[in-house]
Predict the 3D structure of the following.
Amino acid sequence: MEPENLKENEIQTPEFTPGDSIALNEDSFGIKVKRTFNGIKTFFSNPANTILVFFVILLLILNVFPLLSVTKDSLFVLKTEPVPGAKIGDFTFSYWEETLASEISKGYFWKPLGRSFVVSIFSCLFALVFGGGTAFLICRTNMPFKKFISSVFIFPYIMPQWTLALFWKNFFISTACNAGHVGEFQALTGVVMPEWFVFGPFPISVVLGLHYAPFAYILLGGVLRNMDANLEEAATILNIPKWKTFFKVTIPMLTPAILSTILLVFTAAMSSYPIAQTLGSPVEYFVLAVRMKGMIQGAGGAMAGMGAVVSIVLILLGIIILIFNQRATSGRKQYTTVSGKAGQATKQNLGKVGKWVTGVIMIILIIFFCFGPMVSFLLESMIANPGDYSNGLTTYYWTTNDNIRNNITGVFNETDLWSALRGSILLSVLCSLAAGTMGLLIGYAISKKRKSKLAQAVNGLSFFPYLIPSISLSACFFFLSASVSWLYKLPLLVCVILGTMKYIPFASRSSLNAMMQLSGEIEESALIQNVPWWKRMVRIVFPIQKSAFLSGYLLPFISCMRELNLFLFIGSNSIVLTRYMYFLEDTGIPALENAANLILVVIILVVNWLVNLLTGASIDKGVGGK
Amino acid sequence: MKKRVVTLSLAALSLLGMVGCGNKSKVTVSKEVEAAVKDAMTLSRDDLMKKAVAELGDNQLKFLAVTSRGGKPAALNKFAELLNKAAGSEKYSGDKSAKNCPVKYDSTVDGQIYTTLTGEVDNKVSDGYSGAILQDGYQLQTKLIDPGYMVNYVPKEWNDATETDKTSNANPFTLQYNFKTWMVNNKNNDTVIDNVWDITDPKFKGKLFTMDPTNENVNMDWMIQLTDPKVAKELKAAYNEASNNSKVDLSAYKKYGEDLQYSYAFIANYIANAVFSSDDGEAVNSLAATPGSIGWIVYSKIQNVKETAKTTKKDIVISALGNENTDGATISASKISGFAGFMYKHYMSVMPNAKYPYATCAFLNVLSTTPEGYSAWAGDVGDYPSMPSINKDRTKGGNGSLATEVDKDGVFKFTQKADDPTIFPCLNDPSSNWWLNTGKAIVETPSFIGANYATVYQFIKVQLANK
């Protein structure tokens, strides 16, 4: 541009000197810095962004170490699993080759993988049908006994997995099984159940599905209860048949919850060990998790490399499902079911007879599956030999002060048991508070920014610990804490960090589902009135979706109370009750072990009840038990 | 793009290299610990206690074990009593919940204990576990002995005793033998195993209850030890005896050698028949509930079976002892050809990073050389201390009387009396010498297992994969 023209336009152009050039550059740099600063300030003025940045850093730190160590174990020669011709620490694909393409691959990997798929798919189906069906009956029909069914439906999830499997085995085992004997069902009815019903893929799928049905119940029920009736009502006005409305309107609205259920159940079922061990091993039906546990924990580490490979495969499978879930719930699709002008859907009438028949069938099923194991624990805690009721029942194992064996007394007088229980409660409360709060914040932030890459990263990262086998996490955090002397002296803190990390997915999923149903307009109206973020959260967001958020606190508590593998390397028996139970098994007093199980379940139920009493909310109430 | 992929890959690889997870540089035993343990071996129990008191002061030593029994009140009380005597005051308490209890005793399983201990040593944890009771010869050899982490303490009283076997049990120092043996549920009088090869009979497929070798590695050690040439010869001899009901086809195993083919054939057919439980207690419960089944189970677990109208130890027959065993002290020949069982050991070690080496040695001394310290094990069949004089006589443990009325604990009470008739032949436990010499029990040898593990484990892996 010519200087004359500039003058004409009355624009002052400074004379061009080197010194001024620096001043100009400094100015533009200052502007840039200021702009950047303002940009950052604006970015962080949105609480969702602040939360996302904080958690992406935290979760990266927490996830990277275990993930890399598992990867490293699969790619470098381990001290415990030498590779011919290679030195310890050398790079190798040997473990991958041995796992995927060797003479033992079929037995150790491919066959168990196929079986894992089979039981995981069927357990997903069972959980969705049973859990979702129950949620539908409770939220959307006039079936009786809702309060009772709703309050006990979560019991199978509360109970440790293996106890459900043991109940199934003890109840149905029969003389038709190889090495079988007369079980409770055969003794009561004379009916001899076939072996396929007692051991193998069928009972594993059913028991896994049963254990995880509360996931479906909680997630689907939460949506069904809060669902905006407008769309269904529109379908009714248009004379669309009810079944068509259900499949074309209701089910699509449930998509995020269904996908979340599949994600949680499938990945959990794929890596579930105790049920498959109890109901599969007697007929040599080994799933991948059973094989993996043997590889990681057993043989003095002689298969640890293969174990790492299987861990990675399970993690990758989880990631694929996670991506699928993310794709399905992100993008332009909206799943808002709670809006500012929602109306409650009308309940479907099952008919005068139909509602009672449905109610009674549900009651029988629920009592059998939910109370059966607890009754079984109680009875088993009152007999000397497992499953042997021939000498009647006794309260001895609860009340005695005698030395039953190895200086162990009855439950009420066994100080170690109560000390371990106190430890477990403290640990579970701390983990639940931390995981619940973090999960809530993560869910909130992701829902607000769900199209951003940052949100997707946090969403993925928060779910990662769920995919890593608990035992691997435990070992990694043990080594991590051992290298930090002050941390090693605080095993409870390490357990809390580990538990929080592992259980964030429960809370974040629950929170995300709730947030995705919440129309933006609800918070926006408060935003217009300049209501601060924390107040919007506490006064608006939280109260509306209280039940879903609180389940985000309760689920970590329940999971932590019955966790064993995660805390195997950290802390002592006095911190975790399940570790103490593991040693009760070793002492050969099964009655005490059963009593401890019963106490564990009762404590969790009491906590659920207390939360209900104090806050007016609980997992089951969130679904609609009242 | 390509550049970015390469950069990311390099970054990932370098990060992988940084992730330690236990592979740290070798740590040597601290000179203080080495000197203290060397000195402790020359000291009498009383003198050792004085050193322990001076070293420990008001602190607690941390101890980790694969068994909870060493932390039982009898042992802790005895330790506290001896320390108090040395201190000349009631400074210590045997109550584990008291702050002045000299030991903080934790227990875990053999799958975890080596990870914990070596992890502490590798990471130079200064106030970690000072001592340990361990099992699993393979991991002991490869994870403690080979890297030089094992600090062996032998109590003076044990070393001075004439009854102790220094060759077998002094290095690594052995607290006791645990014993795994063959047993059957003979409720219907139709199940006998009089030759180890009988357990490979296809009729026992799915009826042989035992513990999962991937769950507790001593079960793997046993199979490795079966390939010891001496054991292979025993298996060969038993195979050719008339009592062998199961002439398994050896042709597939000839490649392993004239004698070793018997070992490999036995391992393969044992695995094929076995039902693996997560615990020996679970295995014995299954055995007791299933007439006609057989078991390869830790002998002491037989005591888990309580007397009821439906279940009784009378039905359980220890194959080597037979069902007419009235006195473990006078029993003559073993009733089973081949080996009667497997002796695996509980080893003791001071840790190279021990904060209180003298006190640790003192505690190990109490557990391994005093009846009180060993009392938590002494009552159980199948547990044999390396110093036999601290054990209880259990040779007539199955003689006595059985009540006909149900007692308050829901079982028919058994009152043991040596001179009374035999009620439970399975409980008349012979001495460890009988099992070793007459019963030809296999003994766990860490050096053999460590040297042969990789080769034999390859074979076992294939068998387990085919299950």
Notes: Chain B touches chain A through 86 residues (CB under 8 Å). Chain B is about 40% helix and 15% strand. Chain B has a mean pLDDT of 91.
